[in-house]
Amino acid sequence: MRYASLLLVVLLLPAAAAQNLADFEKDVTEFTLDNGLKFIVLERHDAPVVSCYTHVDVGAVDEVKGITGLAHIFEHMAFKGTSTIGTKDYQAEAKALERIDAAFKALKEELQKGKRSDPKRVEELRRQLAKEQQEAQQYLVHDEFEEALKREGATGLNAGTSYDYTVYMVNLPSNKLELWMLMESERFLDPVLREFYKERDVVMEERRLRTETQPVGRLLEEFLAVAYKAHPYGEPVIGHMSDLQTVTREEAEEFFRKYYVPSNMIVAIVGDVQPARVKELAARYFGRIPGKPEPEAVETVEPRQIGERRVVISDPAQPFVLVGYHKPGINHEDDAVFDAITDIMGTGRTSRLYKSLVKEKRISVEASGFQGMPGVKYPGLFLFYSVPARGHTNEENLKAIYEEIDRLKNEQVTAEELEKAKTRARASLIRQLDSNQGLAQQLAFFETITGDWRNLFRQLERIEKVTAQDIQRVAQTYFRPDNRTVGFIETAATDQKSRAGVER
Questions:
Q1: 3 state SS of 386
Q2: Hey, where are the domains in the chain?
Q3: Does the structure show a pLDDT above 90 at 271?
Q4: Rounded to the nearest 5 degrees, what angle is found at the Cα of 86, between the Cα atoms of 81 and 87?
Q5: What is residue 208's DSSP assignment?
Q6: CB of 379 within 8 A of CB of 163?
Q7: pLDDT score recorded for residue 2
Q8: Is the four-CA dihedral 372, 375, 380, 384 of positive or negative sign?
Q9: For residue 242, how many C-alpha atoms fall within 13 Å in the half-sphere facing its CB?
Q10: pLDDT band (50, 70, 90) for residue 21
Q11: CA atoms of 53 and 159, how far apart (whole Å)
């Protein structure tokens, strides 16, 4: 339990953090393969298990119009196997995949004719595509990639796509590390995007369920599109429906070749492992992936907002208020201040927003505020939201939110509030690092997004240095009317009244 004790010392005694970070580093091994792929290895010999976390520095923010949603689609594709995993006869299957691509291309070209398209021809091409897809099924071994790992004790096999990155994770017995090295490297060395159009249809249905039929999902998509007029943070991770309908397997392969390169990936391994053995296996398996130049970061910069923006959607659902202010990304010196504001304004039942709007005024059933949307790698938003209680309006809730923001700008927070925020920040990080997977996730995230995994601990030092004056300064600097976007969900009965808005 030496590591657990050390972690508590690191987190609970910030005055000695620098010295204890040096102690923590003794259990961390870092190395980079010749192709540019970096590994972070943390030994934890408490149990014979290991967590493996592959962090790829690509997300929805790297897409352009026409291929929105592709980062997420490829995440699905990464589980489909390779030319040797997931197939009975790859040579025959490859020809079948070419026929599917040709059938989809013909259908897409006919549909793009618009009013000039031939309905009978469209229906014929749809049948041809379905036929080719069905014939390709005979060559598939469904879920072979996943089952090969699960049979050997793997748990938590999953993946996720955000605006800033794509991640792949798994927990497994430590004596199965070599199997994971083989499988994980193979799917990024030799991926086969089989069942692409079928999986694309799954993503389209996911969009319908999570966005198009969910009032808050629709509001958030509209809200981001209004808040951002240039930067790709304004585009949805799930993608626009028209892009999903027309994206091709060839475009997905191009996306993979550009972004899934070793220099754009970080692998974190935490658990019962020997670093020398990990390095040997990494070179043997991941070293096979050809090195390529790291793709360029997003160049588009969101211009300074010069006036309040608004979006209102009507829906029979519960009214909803959303207020967002532009703020810097995670690497800015004020990021720790926004963490403290998140805690004071929006975390839990003791937060200012909950106490004021829910407990005291009783005009809301839920109210909070937080940073981190839609991403953190580039300048994002600090969001405040409220769900009005029955009989109360969006205007009442918006006015109450503004009053709490004004209070933050005009009065310094109390020493007690600030100390609670710092204590909860430490406790939150302890919870995040309570498992091998949590550790692997955070090490990979901070290494990729901030350039150094050590910033995971330095963030606590920064939070410890936050003062009441810092919070007041940041609130005055960023929480300005000309820097905000306001979004409402309005019921039909209150739509006309609420469109008049609340001016401050």
A1: strand
A2: 52-67+144-191+202-235+256-288, 309-498
A3: yes
A4: 125
A5: I
A6: no
A7: 38
A8: negative
A9: 5
A10: confident
A11: 9
The secondary structure of 95-115, three-state, reads: HHHHHHHHHHHHHHHHHCCHH
The whole model's pTM is what? 0.90
Grade residue 352 by pLDDT with cuts at 50, 70 and 90: very high
Q: What is the mean pLDDT of the chain?
A: 92
Q: Are strands 309-314 and 484-490 parallel, antiparallel or unpaired?
A: parallel
Answer for the pair 342, 385: CB distance below 8 angstroms, yes or no: no
Q: Where do we find the tokens 């403290």?
A: 340
Helices 196-207 and 70-77 meet at what angle, rounded to 10? 130
Helix, strand, coil percentages (3-state) for the chain, rounded to 5, are 55, 15, 30
Fold (topology level) of 52-67+144-191+202-235+256-288:
Cytochrome Bc1 Complex; Chain A, domain 1 (3.30.830)
Total residues found in the chain within this entry: 504
For 309-498, CATH number? Answer: 3.30.830.10
Q: Nearest Cα to 56, choosing from 334, 256, 236, 218? A: 256
What is the radius of gyration, based on Cα positions, of the chain?
A: 25
